[in-house]
Write a structure and sequence with these properties.
Layout (H helix, E strand, L loop, with lengths): L1 H4 L3 E3 L2 E3 L6 E5 L7 H14 L3 E5 L3 H13 L4 E4 L4 H9 L4 E4 L1 H4 L2 H14 L3 E6 L5 H7 L4 H17 L5 E6 L3 H11 L7 E3 L7 H16 L6 E2 L7 H14 L8 E4 L10 H12 L7 E5 L5 H4 L5 E5 L3 E6 L2 E7 L3 H10 L3
Parallel strand pairs: 3-4, 3-10, 4-5, 5-6, 6-7, 7-8, 8-9, 9-10, 11-12, 12-13
Antiparallel strand pairs: 1-2, 13-14, 14-15
Helix pairs in contact: 2-3, 3-4, 4-6, 7-8, 8-9, 9-10, 10-11
């Protein structure tokens, strides 16, 4: 698999590439210079399972804030830079574990070199980012419109530029809001480079559309053995990105641990608030680092049979429900006690 052959890159206390586990990223939506708010959000994301966090650095105050933020968090911190090469340098001097730049919008070669020199001196990896919205005009003109081939050409141009400056501590990111174009671009670049790839569907949309597009795109890419880190980009709270990314990786067999919740669709036999119960169970199990499957069923008639492949389950009836273990009903309880009884069973696995 491509993932097993990529160059190993160290980002803070984590490693990607070379067959290391696929790591989950997200990006804060606080003002980076608001240190307290940014730290609080990062700590929440850490607890949810975020492996690497990225912060926007639009000004010098934000760049300076990274120093204090770094002292209070436990995962690698990536500085997201656009246009001003001085911000990239300041972010690295403040302790950023990686920087994200697009050399095409940094400026002339001397400015790019100034950034690379500092990165080289501190051995800080660079994520070279290209997306369909920032593709150079000459490349768009060459292919007639934005294409997967154009994305790959643009990314490799930037990679080769940095290599010529004597540096190869890089991660590549090529993103598009067009899911199939993004998939094709990753298939192409996997044949042309051995740098780790950060994968995501950019501008994918709100939580429903964004999750569907990201699941399809990331699923197709990751299942081919391509991709070393991922971000599920959602127009929603960053916490939702982590939840979705964990499910994608677990579904593909790329991550173990964490409870998987399966639940049946509603139907005319449902006599319980199944939607509400499923959400409550998802919130409950997020606090457990157990490799289990928990089923939430809306019908006491079919529930036990449908939940037989789960380790634990609950099935609702009219005012009552049952607790299921390995497909067997172990007790019946009042509806309002279902969640508490499920928690007791989960605690017994600890």
């Amino acid at each position: 698999m491509y993932r097993d052959k990529t160059k190993v890159i160290t980002i803070g206390n984590r490693k990607i590439g070379g067959g290391n586990p696929v790591l989950i990223q997200s990006m804060t939506n606080t003002k980076t210079e608001d240190i307290a708010a940014t730290v609080n959000q990062i700590l929440e994301l850490e607890e949810a399972g975020c492996d690497i966090i990225r912060c926007a650095v639009p000004n010098m105050e934000a760049a300076g804030a990274l120093r204090e933020i770094k002292k209070k968090i436990h995962i690698p911190l990536v500085a997201d830079i656009h246009f001003d090469y001085r911000l990239a340098i300041a972010a690295m001097e403040s302790g950023a574990d990686k920087i994200r730049i697009n050399p095409g919008n940094i400026g002339d070669i001397e400015r790019v070199k100034a950034v690379i020199d500092v990165a080289k001196d501190r051995n800080i990896p660079i994520r070279v980012g290209v997306n369909s919205g920032s593709l150079e005009k000459h490349i768009v003109d060459k292919y007639g419109h934005v294409t997967a081939e154009g994305l790959v050409e643009s990314a490799l141009d930037k990679v080769h530029l940095i290599e010529k400056l004597g540096y190869d501590n890089m991660v590549i990111s090529i993103k598009s809001s067009d899911v199939l174009m993004c998939v094709k671009a990753h298939e192409l670049i996997a044949q042309k480079a051995n740098y780790p790839l950060h994968v995501g569907i950019t501008e994918s949309g709100s939580i429903v559309a964004g999750n569907i597009k990201s699941s399809i795109g990331l699923g197709l890419i990751l299942n081919q053995g391509i991709g070393d880190t991922i971000r599920v980009s959602l127009t929603d709270k960053p916490l939702e990105e982590i939840r979705s990314a964990k499910i994608i990786l677990k579904t593909l067999g790329l991550r173990k641990g964490g409870i998987e919740v399966v639940s049946c669709p509603t139907c005319g036999r449902t006599q319980i608030d199944l939607i509400g119960l499923a959400k409550q169970v998802e919130d409950l199990v997020s606090n457990y680092d157990l490799d289990l499957k928990v089923a939430v069923m809306g019908c006491a008639v079919n529930g036990p049979g449908e939940a037989k492949e789960a380790d634990l389950g609950v099935a609702g009836g009219k005012g009552v429900g049952c607790i299921i273990k390995k497909g067997e009903v172990i007790r019946t309880v009042p509806e309002e006690s279902l969640l508490a009884e499920l928690k007791k069973e989960l605690d017994s696995f600890i």
